[in-house]
Write a structure and sequence with these properties.
Layout (H helix, E strand, L loop, with lengths): L4 E6 L2 H13 L11 E3 L12 E2 L14 H7 L4 E3 L3 H15 L6 E5 L2 E5 L7 H16 L3 E6 L2 H8 L7 E3 L5 H5 L12 H9 L5 H5 L3 H8 L1 H10 L18 E10 L2 H21 L3 E11 L4 E12 L2 H15 L5 E12 L14 H18 L20 E2 L4 E2 L15
Parallel strand pairs: 2-4, 7-8
Antiparallel strand pairs: 1-6, 1-7, 2-3, 5-6, 9-12, 10-11, 10-12, 13-14
């Protein structure tokens, strides 16, 4: 038997995790998954967007990502619950622990998705996938879809077939029957702009794309045309990456709790990462000469960009500024799943070249940042934090963990010990 890859995807993750928590810990009689409900925004102010929705919302045309006020107009009886990112993180970790009982080759693609390399771990891929799916439902209380195939691309395509609580295969021999009839926009890397260009060529299904001369696609879409042609034919050799590779040097990265589409929020995460990286540099008496930004988007794509600094630095402000510049030059507005800041050309040299365009006193800023480092080391990371990391009362964005590179843990008194997950 050849290569076997699973893609595990939690059904309506945020809503499912909230529903499971309410049933198991609060004794709720109504399952949010069975009624017209959604996670997102402020229930009173109707502010924000829909982050996750139940299956019954389909008949009202409610979409993930649309404004709450618009969703309420479609269905005034829509039950809204606020996001609970601490709960989501714990639920995600519980899922990964269970999946780890089947294989040690796991790539967390997002907070509610993972790829598993099951090669050599099963002789009956479908039976094992069903066993895994049923265990998740029985032991953790929520449901998943599992796609099974020879590569990551086809496994993820398979997991998007009929939901919820299903196992689907998409072997290469099944591509023509199961994948080619689908609309072309269902394929990875085919966004709205690409869809329009393909439509101008008379290409409306994945099968039509697969059978198009790749040289024609390349002439219209450049290298992107060859990529989508390969995907339409089920060609993907990417490996399940158990650890995201980092550049040599100091770095930190995070997987966002949901797709990031707002540059302002992405840059808050970058500031969190910059604080962590710069604090480590200062602690070791090092400076970095090159700052690199890495992004992983929802299309399984990794890409990065780096900037060489005029003079090596260990300052949060300068590392953050460089990361933001990389971000502005690199990001193509594709929703983001993962962000990272990495450094290279690190040195112990404490000399700093004079720059005619310096707008700050390096020595004073470094002393201020070192003072913050000392306070945090003595009294804890939360003794001092930037105001921008505090949750805004006007919106429901997550509180950023300013030194952990992620979402902060909420302080709650509820006992979460049941099943060790929620």
């Amino acid at each position: 038997m050849g290569r076997i890859i699973y893609h595990v995807d939690v059904n309506s993750a945020f809503l499912s995790w909230e529903a499971t928590y309410r049933i198991h810990h609060l004794g709720a009689k109504t399952d949010l998954r069975t009624i017209v409900s959604a996670v997102g925004g402020d229930q009173e102010k109707r502010h924000g967007i829909i982050l996750a929705k139940s299956i019954p919302t389909v008949k009202y045309g409610i979409q993930t990502g649309e404004p709450v006020v618009q969703a309420k107009q479609k269905c005034p009886e829509l039950v809204l619950v606020p996001p609970n990112y601490s709960l989501y993180n714990r639920s995600s970790k519980a899922l990964l622990r269970l999946l780890g009982k089947y294989t040690d080759r796991i790539e967390q693609y997002s907070i509610d998705e993972a790829f598993l390399d099951m090669t050599g771990y099963t002789t009956d891929p479908v039976q094992t996938a069903n066993e895994m799916k049923n265990r998740v439902k029985k032991e953790l209380g929520f449901t998943v879809n599992i796609g099974v195939s020879e590569n990551k691309l086809l496994a993820k395509m398979a997991s998007d077939f009929q939901k919820p609580d299903r196992v689907h295969t998409l072997w290469k021999k099944e591509i023509k029957e199961k994948m080619w009839p689908l609309p072309v926009e269902d394929l990875f890397y085919v966004g709205h702009a690409t869809k329009r260009k393909l439509a101008s060529l008379g290409i409306h299904t994945i099968g039509e794309l697969a059978q198009t001369d790749p040289s024609i696609l390349q002439s219209i879409l450049k290298s992107h045309g060859l990529t989508v042609w390969r995907y339409a034919n089920g060609l993907d050799e990417s490996k399940v990456i158990t650890e995201i590779p980092e550049n040599k040097g100091y770095g930190n990265s995070l997987t966002t709790p949901y797709d990031v589409i707002e540059p302002a929020l992405a840059k808050l995460y970058l500031l969190s990462l910059a604080e962590t990286v710069s604090a480590r540099l200062r602690a070791d008496g090092m400076r970095a000469g090159v700052i690199a930004l890495s992004i992983r988007d929802w299309n399984l794509r990794f890409y990065n960009h780096q900037i060489t600094l005029y003079s090596p630095t260990d300052l949060t402000t300068e590392i953050y500024a460089a990361a933001c510049r990389c971000f502005d030059e690199l990001w193509d507005q594709t929703p983001i799943r993962h962000l990272g800041i990495h450094t290279s050309r690190v040195t112990h040299d404490d000399t700093r070249q004079m720059n005619l365009f310096d707008t700050m006193d390096y020595g004073k800023v470094k002393k201020a940042e070192q003072a913050v480092d000392a306070l945090r080391k003595r009294y804890g990371q939360d003794v001092i934090k930037r105001a921008c990391f505090l949750p805004s009362p006007q919106d429901k964005r997550p509180e950023i963990d300013h030194m952990g590179g992620g979402i902060s843990r909420e302080k709650r008194t509820v006992d979460y010990s049941k099943e060790d997950i929620l």
